[in-house]
Write a structure and sequence with these properties.
Layout (H helix, E strand, L loop, with lengths): L1 H24 L2 E12 L2 E14 L5 E21 L2 H4 L19 E21 L4 E14 L3 E6 L7 E7 L2 E3 L10 E10 L4 E16 L4 E2 L5 E2 L1 E17 L1
Antiparallel strand pairs: 1-2, 1-13, 2-3, 3-4, 3-13, 4-5, 4-6, 5-8, 5-9, 6-7, 7-10, 9-10, 10-13, 11-12
């Protein structure tokens, strides 16, 4: 019995020691943040949890994952044709540098828009010092929900608008530019920690809000049909962060 107890305590001690060494080798940065992005007649409020690993020799760089809930609000905004194959005629990486095909781009005017999204995010950071750092994050995959909204569809062939109804696109997926699907949030920011727990960040926020109409209301000159319409918000961002010990 005594030998068994000694063996158990030895295993526990070695496990704790190994865990401590692992933490020393790979320090982590775990924090929650509350952020607000403000654009013209629109805003996005988000709450996120982030788990980053400090990497490379000096441990100044961070990379990790997070979970973020974002709620977008907008009023009197035009949501334009979303799919890349229509907006630029391309779906490969060159879509980033392609011009829009104006004849394929229609819009839906929503007097009110409200989209809620929950996504897994990719996070990157660099620590200049113990107090100052910079970061970049972007939503990768998730889902959206929200109430049905009434809007007015405006096409190139319509002199007046057509009433439509739409709900947020359910599935969110990060691809490339207009290839993205659904509603996705991203931030570029600088952060200042005034103590070991609390900090404040300031930067820019870029949010894609996407609606899907009840029917495929758009038909392009080439005969393609579409029911997805997107609004891109680029706004000033501010937030508060809390680091977990």
């Amino acid at each position: 019995m005594k030998q068994n107890l000694i063996l158990i305590f030895s295993i526990l001690f070695l496990s704790a020691e190994a865990s401590a060494q692992q933490k020393a080798k790979r320090p982590v940065d775990r924090f929650a943040d509350f952020s607000v992005g403000i654009g013209r007649s629109q805003a996005a409020v988000s709450l996120a949890y982030v788990h980053n690993w400090k990497v490379l020799k000096r441990k100044k760089w961070e990379i990790g994952f997070g979970a973020r809930f974002t709620s977008y609000f907008g009023s009197n905004h035009y949501f334009r044709t979303a799919p890349a194959k229509l907006t630029s005629g391309k779906t490969d990486p060159t879509v980033l540098f392609s011009d829009d095909i104006d004849a394929n781009i229609d819009s839906v005017l929503f007097p009110k828009a409200q989209v809620n999204s929950f996504n897994i995010s990719l996070n990157f950071g660099y620590n200049f010092s113990k107090k100052f750092s910079a970061g970049l994050n972007i939503d990768a995959v998730g889902f959206s929900f929200g109430g049905k909204q009434s809007g007015t569809y405006y096409g190139n062939n319509f002199a007046t608008g057509v009433p439509v109804s739409a709900k947020p696109t359910v599935f969110n997926l990060l691809l490339i530019s207009d290839n993205d699907k659904g509603s996705l949030n991203s931030e570029l920011f600088g952060k200042y920690k005034w103590n070991n727990s609390w900090g404040v960040k300031l930067g820019i926020q870029f949010y894609f809000a996407e609606y899907k109409t009840d029917t495929k209301v758009q038909t392009t000159p080439g005969g393609d049909m579409n029911d997805r319409f997107r609004k891109k918000m680029l706004g000033a961002g501010i937030g508060v962060t809390y680091n977990f010990k």
